[in-house]
Structures are given as C-alpha cells and as structure tokens.
From TrEMBL:
Keywords: ATP-binding, Nucleotide-binding, Transport. Residues 5-248 form the ABC transporter domain. InterPro entries: AAA+_ATPase, ABC_AA/LPS_Transport, ABC_transporter-like_ATP-bd, ABC_transporter-like_CS, P-loop_NTPase. It comes from Paenibacillus sedimenti. This is ABC transporter ATP-binding protein. PANTHER family: ABC TRANSPORTER ATP-BINDING PROTEIN, CONSERVED COMPONENT OF ABC TRANSPORTER FOR NATURAL AMINO ACIDS-RELATED. CDD domains: ABC_Mj1267_LivG_branched (cd03219).
Amino acid sequence: MVPILETKGLTITFGGHTAVSDVHFQMPPHHFKSIIGPNGAGKTTFFNLLSGQLKPSAGTIHYKGKDITRLSPTERARLGIGRSFQLTNVFPNLTVLENVRLAVQAQAGIRYNMFSHFRKFNRLEERAYELLQTVLLNGKAEALAKNLAHGEKRKLEIAMLLALQSEVLLLDEPTAGMSLEEVPAILEVIHKIKQQGNKTIILIEHKMDMVLDLSDSIMVLFNGKFLADGPVADIMQSEIVQSAYLGGLYDDAS
Ligand SMILES: Nc1ncnc2c1ncn2[C@@H]1O[C@H](COP(=O)(O)OP(=O)(O)OP(=O)(O)O)[C@@H](O)[C@H]1O
C-alpha cells in the first residue's frame, strides 16, 4: 500500500512545549481514520500541520509521495487536501445554493459572464444542487445562509468542502457545538460521503460512538506522542490505549 498521506518524525514545539512529537503516520487511500486522544493531545495541532496552517519544527509530510512540508495551505488545498474550517467565506446574505455554486465555480475556475456562459452557469448550479443533496441540505437551497441552524451551517461547510473536490478530507469535530438532535444528520452525511468511496477521510472526534461507527482505523495521540494506530477492534482492546486513554484519564468521551 502506498500511503496517500504520510508524516515522518513530525514534531512541533511551541516555546518549551512539544505539542506534536515525532509522529510517524500513514494514511491509506480511500480509508477512514479517526484521531482520538485526551484534550490537549495534539490532534488539532496535527491537523494544522497536515493542512499547512502550522509549519513543523522537525519532520516531513508527504502527499502521494511528494514532500509538501513547505507548501502553503492554499497549495495543499489545490493538490487535494481539504479542511472544512478553511471555508469561512460563507456569504450570509446569499442563499445556500448560491454559496455552494460559488464554491463550485471557484473550483472550476470559471468567471461567470451573464451573457455568454449561461449554459456553464446551469451546469454549475446542477453540480451545486447535487452537493446539497449529498449533505441532505437540498430542502434549504433557497434559504439565506445566515438563517441556517448551527448543524445546517456545518452541512453547508461540508458541501463547500466537497465542491473543492479534495481527495483528502480533514474533518475536525464536525459535530462540535451541535445539539444532540443535529448529530445524526451529520453522521448520515459523513456516511454517505464515505460510501461514495472516492475520498480519504481523517476525522477528529470526541464522540466515541461516532468514531466506532465510521472508522476503518483509529490513531491515538497522547501528550503529543503517537500511542497506537490500527483497526478499530484492536485499538479498543489495546491495553496501552485503555490505560492511557480510557482508564479514567479521559472522561470526555460521550
Ligand atoms: N499556537 C499555539 N501556541 C502554543 N501552544 C499551543 C498552540 N496550539 C496548540 N498549543 C498547545 O498544544 C497542545 C495540543 O493542543 P491541541 O489543540 O492540538 O490538542 P487537541 O488534542 O486538539 O485538544 P482538544 O481535544 O481539546 O481539541 C495543547 O497543550 C495546546 O495548549
């Protein structure tokens, strides 16, 4: 197996504190891996290193065999590594459909010209509508983005992330801040994307039932260090994981 994404000795130190320490990580293509670990374990920092928001103090990151360690977040996004929070450019006064269409348009690199490109415009809109169906938001196509509930906004972000056609999706706690009633819909959306089979997905999530439901494998970080990586059943039975992570040190799993 050639990993689509790989880190070697990935390390970052803030002042005297090493938030991610010598992590060797391999992500198979079209695989779903969750990253778990107690608060402060380094999960989000690890994502920031993968997406380019942070530059490592040591170590390297490879995408499809190419060293991307020094590339900017935009360059990485162009190569196919997408992260949902980058999409802060939701226009609150545009409709849901218009927002997704703009993301599709940006990806297609088309400058919309009202008179000459109406056919292309229709195709963009069709694609945007398909994406809204994927994230189960088609019923809200004409709603203004600012009027969406929190969970619906997260779905819109995911639709816009999908519009970028990223091969690798980095999902950092997609259900954070959601009400309990909103969680199953997001879970269904992620299941649907997984079932389509063409994405490589890395999820950071505290909700263990969601991790167990979705993941092919789990990586565990603890105090910035790699603790374990393997199939879900192996990780859940691993003594080292249980003692470090499940054995009372961590009580945030819900
Ligand atoms: N920019 C920064 N400057 C200084 N310290 C930082 C910075 N970013 C993260 N840290 C520290 O690095 C450690 C790891 O933080 P990180 O947010 O990656 O953990 P996490 O596993 O995502 O936690 P949580 O589950 O609470 O989101 C923490 O001790 C945090 O305070």
